[in-house]
Amino acid sequence: MNPHPDRRRLLAIGAMLPVIARAQARGPTEGTEYKLVLPPQPVDSGSKIEVLEFFQYSCPHCFAFNPDLEAWRKKMPADVDYKRIHINWDNSTLNHTKLYYSLVQLGRLEVHDKVFAAIHVNHKRMLDPEEIADLMVANGIDRKQWMDMFNSFSTAALANKAFQTWRAYKIDGTPTLGCDGRYLTSPAMVGARSGSLVVLDYLIQRARTDRGSAKK
User: Fold this and answer.
1) Which of 3.40.190.10, 3.40.30.10, 3.30.565.10, 3.40.50.80 is the CATH number of 29-215?
2) Using an 8 Å Cβ cutoff, are 115 and 104 in contact?
3) pTM, two decimal places
């Protein structure tokens, strides 16, 4: 007699438990769930472990991942310094990079999620400077102040620094997470958004070990 479907399901789960336990015991696999940054990159986070989020406003996967990251950030360890690096593969989306770093400099990152929503919910391109300025004005930012910052030398410098950073890390897709200049992981590598954050936690602990060993 064949077992009941529910019993078959329980038997299958039971058979998988040892496999899951072994996977948890070994930790994530290098080359599969994460990879090394070669050569390792310098960090400017002092005694804190640097986590970099490489993203694009135009990337639907980044938009989908954003709520998971926000939840993780609210509970992230105190010894972690979290930064975002906006990527534009070419000049066609350079204005998205300038948009992000203008928000950073104005201290208005609460508008970050609204930019994502404008693009992926309201289907706006958010590449025309005037359209971008309209969104900022709607969120209480003075238009002249915004345009001055958007077109400033400091914003151009930060956009160029972001370009140099993601090229040095050899980023080839978004979203991707960097850990302390040494490791990269992503939902695409792990196969799940939440799973990539579990791997990130593992890499943060590994970075702590790396730093401790370097002091000896």
Assistant:
1) 3.40.30.10
2) no
3) 0.87
